């Protein structure tokens, strides 16, 4: 029997996914699509199900607000979460929704509830990332400092909750030595086609070399 692999997050995960239609449309055009394509091709006989429930603009508190219907009720075998850049964005833009930094508190509550209700579900926590171009360029030091702080939080949560940690920021930093930042993240936040393929490669490398490896 195949596994249910659920991708959760914001616009980077959403990536134009359809809310209705056939399975391929529902995955969008980003890293989740590439991961599903690779594993679905290599393990066609397994019958894995790949689900994308990312929603553009979401912060971690938004994830929690819809967690019952968009995560718990789906009972995934593997749950991948990429969230954080919108939490930073609201703070950097000094918007009312960014008046307090709820990232760690809300993330921890979300994981606690998931572990309590779905103790057998494997967790994959993905590192938030930015590069210096587009919207991040003007206040780069502030952006980078906040995202690095989020990265440390996600890394620590991954250790606490026995989750796989996917080091996206490191991968993008290394990639930016080969091509300009906007080649990978067109506005400093959102990946290009090459950026999404890089993410899929890093995700597969981290997950498939872990106890959560999908077979």
Question: How would you portray this structure in words?
Answer:
The protein is an alpha/beta fold and 215 residues long. The protein is 47% helix and 11% strand. It contains 11 helices and 5 strands. Strands 2-1-3-4-5 form a 5-stranded parallel sheet, with helices on both faces. Helix 8 links the parallel strand 4 (122-126) and strand 5 (164-166). It is globular, with a radius of gyration of 16 Å. The termini are close together.
Helix content: 40-55%
* Average pLDDT taken over every residue: 94
Task: Report the span from N to C terminus.
Answer: 11 Å
Order of helices and strands: EHHHEHHEHHEHEHHH
Biggest beta sheet attributes = 5 strands, parallel
Give the structural class: alpha/beta
Low-confidence runs of at least 5 consecutive residues: none
What strand order characterises the main sheet?
Answer: 2-1-3-4-5
Shape: globular
Question: What order do the helices and strands come in, and which of them pair?
Answer:
Blueprint: E1 4-9, H1 11-14, H2 23-26, H3 31-42, E2 49-52, H4 60-65, H5 67-70, E3 78-82, H6 85-92, H7 103-117, E4 122-126, H8 140-160, E5 164-166, H9 168-175, H10 181-184, H11 193-208
Parallel strand pairs: 1-2, 1-3, 3-4, 4-5
